[in-house]
Amino acid sequence: MQKTSPTGLDKLKASNLFAFPEKIGYYLALCLRVGLLLCLLASISLALFSAFYTKSHWFPMPDFTRTRTDFIAPGPGPGPQPEPEPKPEPTNTSHILFGIGASLTTWHDRSRSGELWWDPNTTRGFVWLDAKPKNETDFSGSIPYRVSEDWTRFRYSSSQSAVRIARIVYESFKVGLPNVRWFVMGDDDTVFFTENLVSVLARYDHDRMYYIGGNSESVEQDVMHAYDMAFGGGGFAISYPLAARLVEMMDGCLERYYNFYGSDQRVWACVSEMGVPLTKHAGFHQFDIRGDPYGVLAAHPLAPLVSLHHLDSMKPMFPDQTHLDSLKSLLRAYRVDPGRILQQSFCYDHRRKWSMSISWGYTIQLYPSLIGAMDLQMPLQTFKTWRSWSNGPFTFNTRPVSSDPCQQPIIYFLEQVAVGKSGIVTIYKRFVANEGNQCKQKEYAHAMAVQRIEVSSEKMDPHYWTKEEAPRRECCEIKNRGSIKNGGMGLRIRACKPKESITM
Ligand SMILES: *[C@@H]1O[C@H](CO)[C@@H](O)[C@H](O)[C@H]1NC(C)=O
Ligand SMILES: *[C@@H]1O[C@H](CO)[C@@H](O)[C@H](O)[C@H]1NC(C)=O
Ligand SMILES: *[C@@H]1O[C@H](CO)[C@@H](O)[C@H](O)[C@H]1NC(C)=O
Q1: Could you give the CA distance from residue 148 to residue 161 in angstroms, rounded to a whole number?
Q2: pLDDT tens sequence across 89-108
Q3: N or C: which end of the chain has fewer CB within 10 A?
Q4: Listed residue (77, 40, 112) closest to 327, CA to CA
């Protein structure tokens, strides 16, 4: 988009070099009139210097009507100058239009988690239903709904609703709302962390064609569908220009790929025809896992949390809470410090030889042994694959959960979030799953005496995730030399010093 403006060197060429012959001519005429030998010599040396100067641009000859700095800094030259392009405003929530695929039968229940992340004052978008509700008051929540139109005329092999949901990007575009930069698609059981989604999207030029999302955690799913496809449940973002092209192509794509399984696969096929690849981002979570999501949530990659999906298909995130209350707990921490939610830092108590892994706003694992960063950052495999309920493979490495209680970490879950003068404090409480099956070793019992862990931190820089810098894990230190008072221990998270390492 940037128009080129003349560089300093270009202007130098234009204004000065061609001035020399004129000056030489002037001197020669003067010499003829005055006839002074000295003057002739001066003209010859000037001509020689000029020839050298034309070949070499490295030693600019100062023009005495300008200051030296004019040669270095490009400034306005003669003639009309191009208007500087106004810098686009940074992307914010208002630039996103959400399109949520739902149906009359599912939305009634799922709207409750939708209402938790949707902010009626700032979030724009619609839930797309398959038919008009009979009783509108049942659907009068804060997320506005629309009824999909004109979708039954398309061919399909396995699922007609996949056609309808693939067309949401088309229908969202056709609504024609102003100032939309990104169309973000999701399922009715997708939870979006909108602030972090904005941080991710703000890094990309919305005037170019982008297709941003993530694939499945279960390799079997990626093999069956595609590694380079954005799985719909994790949500994906389509920039305005790409959406505009998809709208033109959608009917043809739906016809060509009528035998595909899912809606996300149809969109992917159509995007592929445009030659646009998937830009993968580690914060989108299709969450194609079964069982307990703990391991993944406790070791999130170093990227902002953008979405979670399928939460109702697995154990609640917090062991003693319902699905909905678990989500409320996580969102409570998220609202206080959106960018830091689930960010992992490691703490060592070198005196006691303990290791601690914090997943901010969710959990802490305490190991009464020294464990390296490369292991702590690897999720414990508390879950199975989506389709076959197997122990893998996943698209990331996992650590097995030992059946020996002495090899398992002591686990703490978020209990309280507080904002004070000195920053943010999150408190995590010890959780005992099975009183009867506890490690009896002395060192373990000693660690079990820690009932609560208090973590203090400054609020994360709101631009932390939009900066160009490579991400870096934050450091953690033990407060009061690790003293345990009334079963409580204090930790502090802060930016690492340039040469600091996380060494056990
Ligand atoms: C979002 O950006 C638009 C400019 O495109 C601006 O008018 C609006 O005030 C911004 N909204 C917020 C909440 O910052
Ligand atoms: C939305 O805005 C209104 C009026 O500005 C305010 O009273 C209300 O608390 C806001 N709701 C939320 C969920 O922020
Ligand atoms: C619609 O649902 C509301 C609450 O769910 C109920 O109070 C109302 O009677 C219903 N209306 C009709 C016409 O069924």
Answers
A1: 10
A2: 999 999 999 999 999 999 98
A3: N
A4: 112
Q: pLDDT, tens digit, for every residue of 183-240?
A: 999 999 999 999 999 999 999 999 999 999 999 999 999 999 999 999 999 999 999 9
Distances, alpha carbon 503 to alpha carbons 92, 253, 343, 375, 492, in Å: 38, 53, 18, 12, 17
Portions of the chain given CATH number 3.90.550.50: 93-286
Residues 6+ apart with CB under 8 A from 229: 215, 264, 265, 268, 278
Which of these ranges, 51-60, 102-111, 192-201, 355-364, has the smallest mean pLDDT? Answer: 51-60
State the pTM of this model. Answer: 0.83
CA of 116 to the centre of ligand 2 (A): 14
Per-residue H/E/C for 226-281? CCCCCCHHHCEEEEHHHHHHHHHHHHHHHHHCCCCCCHHHHHHHHHHHCCCCCEEC
DSSP bridge pairs for 366: 356, 410
Neighbours of 135 (CB within 10 A): 7
For 254, phi then psi, to 5°, come to -60, -35
CA of 134 to the centre of ligand 3 (A): 9
CB 293 within 8 A of CB 317: yes
Pocket of ligand 2 (CB under 6 A): 119-121
Q: For 118-177, where are the E strands, in sequence order?
A: 124-129, 145-147
pLDDT of residue 157: 86
Q: If we measure between CA atoms, which residue out of 245, 219, 17, 200 comes closest to residue 92?
A: 200
State the distance from the centre of ligand 3 to the C-alpha of 452, rounded, in angstroms. 47
With a 6 A CB cut-off, is 50 part of the ligand 1 pocket? no
The DSSP 8-state label assigned to residue 197 in this structure reads H
CATH of domain 93-286: 3.90.550.50
- Which ligand 2 atom is the nearest neighbour of the CA of 119? 13
CA 398 – CA 418 distance, rounded (Å) = 33
E strand or H helix at 329: helix 323-336
Q: Dihedral angle at the C-alpha atoms of 307, 312, 313, 318, nearest 10 degrees? A: 80
* Distance, first Cα to last Cα, the chain: 49
Q: List, in sequence order, the alpha helices (H) in 16-146.
A: 19-34, 37-55, 69-72, 104-117
Alpha-carbon span 444 to 329, nearest angstrom: 29
Percent of the chain with pLDDT over 90: 72
